[in-house]
Amino acid sequence: MRSRSIKSVPPQYTQGCFLPAAKTRNTEVTRLQRPLVTDHLADILRFTALLVVTFVAFTASWQVAGPAPVSDGALVTSPDAAPRAEPAGRGVTRAELSGRALVLTLGLPVTVVDGGGAVSFRAPRGASVADALDLAGVAVGPLDRVEARDAAAVASGDVIKVVRVVETVTTVEEPIPFAVATVADSSLIVGRSFAVTPGAPGAALNTYRVRTVDGAVAERTLVGSVELRASVPELRHVGTRPAPVPSEIESLIRGAAASWGADPDQLLRVAWCESRYNPAAYNASSGTSGLFQFMPRTWAVNSARAGYGGASVFDPVANANVAAFMFGQGQARQWACK
């Protein structure tokens, strides 16, 4: 039989076949083979790239969702890992799972309060308080205090407060107060006084150690003082003579003193000190009343003993006689004025 040339094979039977180019004289078949080889290589490259991307994504998600390492090399499993692995056993909703996955991806919400200003950010799981401060760009000084939850790692919603403490030394010039010496002067009415030698303040250079907490002064301690100028004490005369008594009040008190054997001058001094000789005087804070400022209970008891039971404490005759009765009985100690 005569051998058939490859030239006589119909084109539909040669597509997709790899025929050696050296054994054919037909250049058309060779041109058909080249596009087929190129397409196969492109498919292989696309498949390989897809595998690489899938592997990288799987590895990243495993690192985020997996347990977080701690400083001693042990592994601490996140509290959210169990719901992610066993959602059906706990009845966790899809929305909850989505929220946890978002937290796992973005980190834990943490707030750092520094000197009154707040910075909110997300810290990775397993981060310590020091790590969180570093992420917030907050440096802690040697005297500063960090107030945070007592735990090895930060948790979701933690608030870390940095209290800024600063110590400084300052020196200021301050006055030294002067002392006042008094001399009793019977030529002056009670309540009057005058300075014989005026006082003058001195001056001192005082050094303080000042501690501030978040900008406010919390402590100020005197650590040194140098006297620059001594103070000059004041000498003051103080009056001791009772003020002039209205004639009717004076005669009333002296008559009561004579009736009960009391010292009239002492009664006059006490009446002036207590009420300024005013029979209607009343002290709202203590409840004392009248010329000698009787307490309600003292008046009720002693007015009856003196024979003035039922009389008004604002009656000057009754008030002066009850006072003279008590002074005559040695009860002057019940008055602060002497």
Summary, kept brief:
The protein has nine helices and twelve strands.
Characterise this structure.
This protein has 338 residues and is of the alpha+beta class. The protein folds into 5 domains: 6-46, no CATH class; 76-105, no CATH class; 107-163, Ubiquitin-like (UB roll) (Roll), CATH 3.10.20.90; 166-240, Single Sheet (Resuscitation-promoting factor rpfb fold); 242-334, Lysozyme (Orthogonal Bundle), CATH 1.10.530. The protein is 35% helix and 26% strand. The chain has a 4-stranded mixed β-sheet. A 3-stranded antiparallel β-sheet has the order 7-10-11, with no helix packed on it. It has a 3-stranded mixed β-sheet with strand order 8-12-9, with no helix packed on it. Residues 1-9, 12-25, 64-92 and 94-104 have low confidence and may be disordered.
Which helices and strands appear, and what pairs or packs with what?
Elements lengths: L26 H39 L2 E2 L5 E2 L4 H5 L1 H4 L3 H13 L1 E7 L2 E7 L5 H7 L9 E3 L11 E5 L1 E12 L3 E10 L3 E5 L4 E12 L2 E14 L4 E8 L5 H14 L3 H12 L20 H10 L10 H13 L10
Parallel strand pairs: 3-6, 8-12
Antiparallel strand pairs: 1-2, 3-4, 5-6, 7-10, 9-12, 10-11
Helix pairs in contact: 6-7, 6-9, 8-9
